[in-house]
Amino acid sequence: MGAPVTIGSITPGLHYHLGPKSIRESLAGFSTYDLDNGVDLLAIRPEDLGDLPVAALDPSDAFCPIVEGVRSALSRQPALIVLGGNNSITRAGCHGTCKSLSNGGLLTLDAHLDVRDLQHGLNNGNPIRALLKDGLPGSHIVQIGAHSFCNSKSYLEVAESAGITLVPAQEVRARGVDTVVSQALEYLSTVAEAIYVDVDLDVLDRTLAPACPGSRPGGLTLWDLRVAARLCGLHPKVRTLDIVELDPTRDLASATTMAAATCLLSFCVGYLERSRASKLPIV
Ligand SMILES: [Mn+2]
Predict the structure, then answer these.
(1) Fewest 10 Å CB contacts: which of 93, 96, 117, 261?
(2) What is the mean pLDDT of the chain?
(3) What are the C-alpha distances in Å from 103 to residues 77, 92, 96, 176, 191?
(4) Is the pLDDT of residue 281 over 70?
């Protein structure tokens, strides 16, 4: 499902509303076979729910349509991918996924902590701060991928004092992405009924995500992203994954758009393995 919100972005003049269309189109350039995991996605029949009518709305006005769209999709399907759009959609997506925020869980992969002040309104730099204010406990949030020269010390203090678990990019490199993501999902599943995953593509290294204004040198690799997305797809409590912050007009050689598409495909691989393991009907 597309959620093409572009208003409410800290950097002006961006075209996030073109993200969903560009990701859908790029899928035509991929095989359905995951050689690493021996899985062919032809075995699933994902449904394209189209775009929610939020391209001309600011994050406040887009909130209800996204919450309702996500809720409605999850009432019919076990798992959902939401294509942004900017990162402001994460707040609404999380509300739509978790029946109550007090027993919801959020795994966010992002170069930034996204806890900017709320006094100037909702934007793509404060969805986590907004969710904390809405009642999502900081102890139910795991943040993976923050790194140097992307965040200020005061925002780090906000995240730490809220009790958010932080796994910086440096730690991903040292301990391996499979270990840190598996541990994050395991932990979240002990405190949450449902887990929402936010993939801000700017978590990738700048060279790999030129279409994200927020990407900086020193971010995660495409391998990290693919492994993380598959593990999220595999986990039975993960209901929704968003992929945000793609402005296709800034892309180079479709690199970022294709990174988004491989994230989508890898989540689907994990989801297919999940369905087989639990003997659920494959949808
Ligand atoms: Mn972000």
Answers:
(1) 117
(2) 97
(3) 20, 16, 13, 28, 7
(4) no
